Description:
Blueprint: H1 5-17, E1 20-28, E2 34-40, H2 44-50, E3 52-55, E4 69-74, E5 80-81, E6 91-100, H3 111-124, E7 128-140, H4 163-175, E8 180-185, E9 191-196, E10 199-200, H5 201-221, E11 225-227, E12 241-249, E13 252-253, H6 266-286, H7 292-295, E14 305-309, E15 315-318, E16 332-334, H8 343-360, H9 377-382, H10 392-400, H11 403-409, H12 411-429, H13 434-440
Amino acid sequence: MANNKESKEYVLKMAKEHDVKFIRMWFTDILGFLKSFTITVEELEGALEEGMGFDGSSIEGFARIDESDMMAFPDPDTWCLLPWRPKEHRAAARMFCDVVKPSGEPYEGDPRYVLKKMLKRASDMGYTFYVGPELEFFYFKDSKGTEMLDTAGYFDLTADAATEYRRDTVITLEEMGIGVEYSHHEVAGSQHEIDMRYTDALSMADNVMTYRLVVKQTAQKYGVYATFMPKPVFGVNGSGMHVHQSLFKGDSNAFFEKDAPFHLSDLAKSYCAGLLEHAPAITSICNQWVNSYKRLVPGYEAPVYLSWAQRNRSDLIRIPEYRVGREKSTRLEMRSPDPACNPYLTFAVMLAAGLDGIEKGLKAPDPVEENVYAMSEEERTRRGIGMLPGTLKEAILLTEQSKLVRDALGEHVFKNFIANKKIEWNQYRTQVTDYELNRYLPIL
């Protein structure tokens, strides 16, 4: 596993200078949960050169017992001191790891490898993939219920109960090298958003994993609970992860064309067409939980219709308005993903869909600036506006038929992800809910 020699030397130097004793080795399972084991600084040089062995058989979707031996190679470019641990003496740091087989081959079940493989495909076409996800989340009194901390709304200040929580979260993220652009109260009571600065997709996937941990740990410090559950409260907006995205050729934004409508190049429109074409098939990746589909319903901000436009926030894909002199900011915003997804897999399948649109020269349909929610079903059908799947079961069946998703994820992740989601759906559909008891028990 080749790592940059200078990066390794930098890591060893930083560990010595900051008196680091413990290094957390971070990686992600197929469902997007952060996993970790800790080594001491005495093992660091060997880990950078030869990796560290671990048993992968107990990690969701990773390996069968007969192929459980795995190696974690820390990526020295992700070295970071952990701000919540002592800094002056016996400090702790973390690095994200690439998981490989004992033979040294990349492990096909590693989500980071899945994204790297797709980024290599984009690179071979001459492109670098940049993303900027906007993760929303709720603060609740504890994890046992959904008691809100405030009833404030979008951008509210005086009624916002979590200003200090967000402040500490932003400071911690910036201490870890993660740039932050905005933080604010969201539409629903006790709902919030902190937006990270646009960057390449691999760095951003690592950043998303870090972000979710920092948000939760900061909340815990204040004695409250933070959740990225897509729809924790009936009747109010759920939490999304709108993903802004663009392709660059060198320093030039390949999505920008000065005199075109919306200043979008033909390449950007084909990318958009690819996203629209494959959106139903990739939805189970972008929205992987039963609860995700309680958010994807008409009438709230989450999109359910396959359309695009500039100003219309009911569309699946929105084109943020161009500002003069900001060519590099030209981008598409896909609004369906939620913050409980696996970011490595989500970025990979979105890129796969967009690249397919480019390779096939797909033409984007006409933009839809009207409110799609207000259209009749006949009008939507006449204009060819389809819908995202309405349940996890529907989404999984569409994914299962998709060659694009199979190729993007690789056979191992594809099969394990679908098998896991089918189990989840079967467990869910056999539950007897409070709704059913309240609705049916008194009358049946």
